[in-house]
Specification:
Blueprint: H1 10-20, H2 23-34, E1 36-39, E2 47-53, E3 59-64, H3 72-75, E4 76-77, H4 83-94, E5 102-106, H5 112-126
């Protein structure tokens, strides 16, 4: 008698597929789906996320539309872990809005929180 094999739930299959994909292919899929481009070249971006030093030497992170006035309460983050959620929100909410490619500047494309945001968005696309 053969052992019973159940199919894994679709979420487990999705997680396994996401883990197999490399970062570049995940990023491309998200960029194509939402019509966005993540870049570390600051050339008139639609949105910018970057680190900045305070007067007393602390590092903070700024996430805002460069054409608007910086709002300290909403646009400045002490912890970079909060930026993943902000990046997801920006990509989801503004990526399709113009019909043109939405350029998002990030001063360092190797931040861990970027890959986390890409993984979260990819899960939503695949659902």
């Amino acid at each position: 008698m053969r052992p019973y094999r159940s199919k894994p739930p679709s979420q487990v299959v999705l997680i396994l597929k996401l883990n197999i994909m490399n970062y570049e292919s995940k990023l491309k899929k998200v960029q194509d789906h939402f019509k966005i481009k993540l870049t570390d070249d600051y050339n008139k971006p639609d949105y910018a996320i970057y680190s900045q030093s305070t007067a007393d030497g602390y590092e903070v992170f700024v996430a805002h539309e460069p054409d608007t006035q910086l709002n300290i309460e909403d646009d400045v983050f002490y912890y970079d872990s909060d930026l993943s959620e902000r990046l997801e929100e920006v990509i989801r909410d503004y990526g399709h809005e113009t019909g043109e490619e939405y350029i998002i500047y990030v001063d360092d494309l190797d931040y861990e929180w970027i890959e986390y945001a890409i993984d979260e968005l990819l899960e939503k696309i695949e659902d």
